[in-house]
Amino acid sequence: MLGVVVTCPFPAVKDYDRAVQYYTEAIALNPNNAIYYGNRSLAYLRTECYGYALADASRAIHIDAKYIKGYYRRAASNMALGKLKAALKDYETVVKVRPNDKDAQMKFQECSKLVRQKAFERAIACDQHNRSVVDSLDIEGMTIEDEYSGPQLQDGKVSLDFLVELMTFYKEQKKLHRKYVYQILVQVKETLAQLPSLVEVSLDKSQQVTVCGDTHGQFYDLMNIFQLNGLPSESNPYIFNGDFVDRGSFSVEVIVTLCGFKLLYPAHFHLLRGNHETDTMNQMYGFEGEVKAKYSTQMFQLFSEVFQWLPLAMCVNQRVLIMHGGLFSEDGVTLEQIRNIERNRQPPDAGPMCDLLWSDPQPQDGRSPSKRGVSCQFGPDITRHFLEENGLDYIIRSHEVKAEGYEVTHNGLCVTVFSAPNYCDQMGNKGAYIHLSGSDLKPKFHQFEAVVSPSSPVCCPVSALHSAPSVSS
Ligand SMILES: [Mn+2]
């Protein structure tokens, strides 16, 4: 065997991208060493490239069926992709071979628990289909206790005064009364359910809209956006492009505030669905736990119902298309098709609805398997054809953290915007938002830094399964 020496490029700085590069070079020199694949798989796991991590772990096991870390890594990749049964099988193998490994035991037990929980949820799901959790709640009958001193809805309706008071209240880390949260959620669900899956807006020459990317529970940074760019209003419209929740500790505060503005300015304040407005992601990345800790399981269920009605894409002046993830795994998708997507559900594993929430651009032409293991990556030629076929100028998407808060790729045809600065309290990235004016529809970028927040990192509550904080979205 060739003596390829690979010095460990981390842990001084957790530079997983460099680790990937070094192991890739090592693999080029010796493609039959299971350890290289196993180690690169770990670096992919840490950067949340679960699709690549899975492929490398499988390759490692293929080369050396006795290489136990390969099973570990494959299990972790499958876990992250929500393929629990496949993960359980590999954890079982690890536990058999290493009966005294406490960490392996813990992961095995945690995974078994999740498999049972899923089975239980499936069993009761048929019962609940098409029924709302609201039917089992008496919202009107909920009483406001005398000691409650927070903002109050007047006749159950949101006003600007209410929202201003709410934002101040939230900054002091206080909790809005559950009755008001329920009332807001019931109303916003009705409002969203009226909308098509593709929402079209038009700006005249004097109007402008602000487009924000991922906010991920970073409430204090959201407040900073409003500080810098003004509160939402009919003359200061906003589009928030998905991934409002998970990761950050203040997802409830972010989503309730955004829902409040949606109710106040339904035609001038827009919310699109991200891949994190889904049950599986909320279970793994914090939102479900946060809602249960701050309120209850039923309230999480109502959030989930609201998320299912979030539109999937927006088109501005029939020229700029906005979605959270990106374009499609297949050619020939039309705006009409997007408009007609039956979106009131958890997204499927493949197809246009999945792609809109999950895909990423890539620099080379064509398509390739996604580094995330869901949907695909699309190249500049795919973007150009899609835009030509649909008579559009360019797309704006979010979904990936960018050092500068935004990135322009595909010869200007694909713009990424990300609005969670210093993502997960550790990435050091800037945030950005975009101004689009009706006069020319060219993207104007505004960057901002993270503000100090009383945040306690809760990046991944399933910490035993995701031992490192992670970086994609
Ligand atoms: Mn995302």
From TrEMBL:
Pfam families linked to this entry: Metallophos (PF00149), PPP5 (PF08321), TPR_8 (PF13181)
Sequence similarity: Belongs to the PPP phosphatase family. PP-5 (PP-T) subfamily.
InterPro entries assigned to the protein according to its UniProt record, in alphabetical order: Calcineurin-like_PHP, Metallo-depent_PP-like, PP5_C, PPP_dom, PPP_phosphatase, Ser/Thr-sp_prot-phosphatase, TPR-like_helical_dom_sf, TPR_rpt
Top-tier EC class: hydrolase
Gene3D superfamilies given in the database record: 3.60.21.10, Tetratricopeptide repeat domain
UniProt keyword list: Cytoplasm, Hydrolase, Manganese, Metal-binding, Repeat, TPR repeat
Presence of the UniProt keyword Cell membrane in the record: no
Catalysis performed (reactions): O-phospho-L-threonyl-[protein] + H2O = L-threonyl-[protein] + phosphate
TPR repeats, residue ranges: 68-101
Cofactor: Mn(2+)
Subcellular location: Cytoplasm
Protein name (record): Serine/threonine-protein phosphatase
The enzyme's E.C. designation: 3.1.3.16
